[in-house]
Amino acid sequence: MKEFCKDFLWGGATSANQVEGAYLEDGKGLSVSDIVTVGSHTQPRIISLEQDEQYYYPSREAVDFYHHYKEDIALFAEMGFKAYRMSISWARIFPNGDDEQPNEEGLKFYDKVFAELKKYDIEPVVTISHGDIPLAIMSKYNGWINKDVIDLYVRYASVLLERYKDIVRYWIPFNEINDMFFPLSTLGQGAMLEKGTKYFTEQKDDPNARFNALNNMMIASAKTVIAGRKINENFHFGTMICHITRYPRTCHPDDVLLVLKHDLYYNNTCADVMMKGEYPFYTLNEFAKIGVELSLSAEEKAILKEGTCDYYTFSYYQSISESTQKFDDQTSGNIMGGIKNPYLKETEWNWPIDPVGLRYTLLKVYDRYRCPIMITENGIGCVDKLEEDGSVHDPYRIDYIKDHIQEMRKAVDDGVDLIGYMAWGCIDLVSVSTGEMRKRYGFIYVDRDDEGNGSFKRYKKDSFYWYKKVIASNGSYL
Length: 478
Known about the structure:
The chain is of the alpha/beta class. The chain contains 13 helices and 15 strands.
């Protein structure tokens, strides 16, 4: 069996709004993530424009990476990280989105983060926008539906590309950009808030506005790629797709056709635009059916064609099953929906566990795009127990990641050009879907609870030591 390439990028991933905290420190402005309260598996998060003291806003303090970055990066280095996928807070650089000058204190923070990564020879993989959009972009511009935001974003991105042109090679313009196919992402991705919206998971929706906002984001991505390649021709720009792998629940031809159409629509549309430079026919046809009229000029079409990405990244946590027939056994904990798959186990939050689905996805994606692939999110959210001696025993996390890495090796043996794997999240962080801390993903336990209590002290889980051996062996030890 083929081995992973010798310079394979083993590492972990986080986002600024889920780890940094320090939400108004050193000139940072409020972001859209700062107005969403904590929730749970059964209680949806509330979007609260009024700063109500009865609510706890978990992203405001998160796990305080802002003040613990040296300690955290040292722990990443101890695990042997070759790469760290992180994001930069737009609200930390341009607090209002349209400020005349960038916030130098915000840039200095990332200067220090990159210096620390360089100290340990850890490659930064940087997401330019990952849910930390200035709140003023929403309140003043109505978010990404406004084409003015395209140039505001490109200006912000260009500041980063120029400042870090000799430090960062791998850039990702937007995180999970195809999440905009779902109303759930109207606020966090689109910086839009439709009237009457209260709950994060039940946002009011205007599909025409949402898809035009997505279109503007993809134009902004292409403009950023074009600008970036003028700054440094050695930059690499990647997609970041939330890949929800789909199976027909039965072998009825109608179910097979349903899954094919959903896969093309939800998983491939954005990647096709960002990798091939144009919308696929089936998406434009579907938009017409639902009354979506894209605002896309001939000049913008040319920009999409020119500003394509050169590597493909995606998140993979699970697969889902779908059917044209009625099934009562829904996966209640999975925000993407789906019917229970009788062949798969589930997490505590009822997310299906499907390692083979990762191999399937890698083969499908590589066959379609024939470019280097990086897995930039994969992991399992679980309740971890901190023992009195400071240990955390998490065999379920080891089993989950081990099984997925085994399928990655098989995909490499199949011929897939896989260049990196970033486990989500390498340190405990705020869960986006529920805002919880108890839904833990990391190899590093952070003493913080769902009410904002705790010392922020870090503890190494059993998976920390296991992943260290995996990296040291380049994936041979599992």
